[in-house]
Design brief:
- There is one protein chain.
- This protein is an alpha/beta fold.
- The chain has a single domain, classed as Ribonuclease Z/Hydroxyacylglutathione hydrolase-like (Metallo-beta-lactamase, Chain A, 4-Layer Sandwich), CATH 3.60.15.
- It contains nine helices and twelve strands.
- Helix 6 packs antiparallel against helix 7.
- It is globular and about 60 Å long.
- The N terminus is likely disordered.
């Protein structure tokens, strides 16, 4: 009996050592995976986010979710080149092929990696599919006309820039334009082939994923990913953290309502479309930003302030250090145009 207990204890020690090694390997990989386009951040066992690296070709953030027997990705970057690194990272982290790729919405930085996952189901709403099909041809033609000039002008801005924050912004935009230009030779628009009406639950061997769309927000259709047991939420571009959001395709009232609904989920970690991993209070910050833009525009219309004068509005102190600062003035002008034309 004593000998049996000794052998059993030895087996338990071996199992413990193996579990520690497996955990260490996962952590070590997430810290050391080398891509010029993103960094890997582990959120919990089997769940990771790929955070855009400034100057790289990812542009947005992505999610990697190990379901136990298959892998799901949430968004897939603007560049096929960056998406290849994402595929490699996902498969090495989870040990499984990528079975699902979610397109949170139709913007190019979230969908152009689709072609790198030919065996996967591409998941989106019907409206997102329609918008990709409708806007991508026109978007590509426009990009081909302007991208060379944008690269040259951004390089000139980098050479003459002394402000560190502005320099980081210029580097981000240079990566964006270069990613687009270098993708022209291989990029093919791949449309979603699995449509979510409002909610889709995917049950894997080890984990449950809930995909849902509450309608308009950042675009006409925005889908999020909830991991209820892990208390993790991937929001796509419904949430930007420490970055000015783009409101140009948005619906500000519905967007705020959507964010209020997301607050009720009581998650502990939230991965935005752009910026670092955050928490529920970042949803409030996003609401505050949208309301600030709305109030500035409403005041301008009420007081007959011209659009030209409105353009001179300085960024409020609470958002002054945010990246993507060019969006601030654009957001004001777009919302002004929408409201003044009603």
């Amino acid at each position: 009996m004593e000998e049996h207990l000794i052998i059993q204890e030895a087996h338990m020690k071996i199992i413990t050592i193996l579990l520690v090694l497996i955990t260490f390997v996962g952590i070590s990989f997430s810290q050391s995976f080398d891509s010029e386009h993103f960094t890997i951040e582990k959120l919990t066992n089997g769940v990771y986010t790929a955070i855009h690296k400034n100057g790289g070709y990812a542009i947005c953030n992505a999610g990697i979710v190990d379901l136990g027997d298959k892998t799901l990705l949430f968004d897939c970057f603007i560049s096929p080149k960056a998406a290849r690194d994402l595929k490699k990272a996902a498969e090495q982290l989870t040990g499984n092929d990528v079975k699902y790729v979610v397109n949170s919405h139709f913007h190019n930085d979230h969908i152009r990696g689709n072609q790198i996952f030919p065996g996967a189901e591409i998941i989106a709403t019907q409206k997102t599919k329609e918008l990709i099909e409708e806007t991508e041809p026109e978007e590509l033609e426009y990009e081909k006309k302007v991208v060379d000039d944008r690269i040259k002008s951004t390089q000139r801005e980098i050479e003459g820039e002394t402000d560190h924050r502005k320099l980081e912004e210029h580097k981000m935009w240079l990566g964006y334009y270069k990613a687009i230009k270098e993708s022209f030779s291989e990029y093919k628009t791949i449309l979603p082939d699995k449509i979510v009406k409002d909610t889709l639950v995917i049950q894997g061997k080890d984990r449950r994923v809930i995909l849902f769309c509450r309608g308009k927000g950042h675009t006409e259709s925005d889908m999020v990913l909830l991991l209820p047991e892990d208390k993790i939420l991937f929001t796509g571009d419904l949430l930007f953290i420490k970055n000015h959001p783009w409101l140009g395709d948005g619906f500000v009232e519905e967007w705020i309502e959507y964010l209020e609904e997301l607050k009720k989920l009581n998650v502990e970690q939230i991965v935005p479309g752009h910026g670092p991993v955050g928490e529920t209070q970042n949803l409030d910050k996003m609401i505050s930003y949208i309301q600030t833009i709305t109030n500035l525009v409403d005041d301008a219309i009420t007081n007959n302030i011209s659009k030209e004068d409105l353009r001179l509005t300085t960024i409020p102190d609470e958002f002054k250090d945010w990246l993507l600062s060019r969006f601030f003035t654009l957001n004001i002008v777009v919302q002004y145009n929408k409201k003044s034309n009603k």
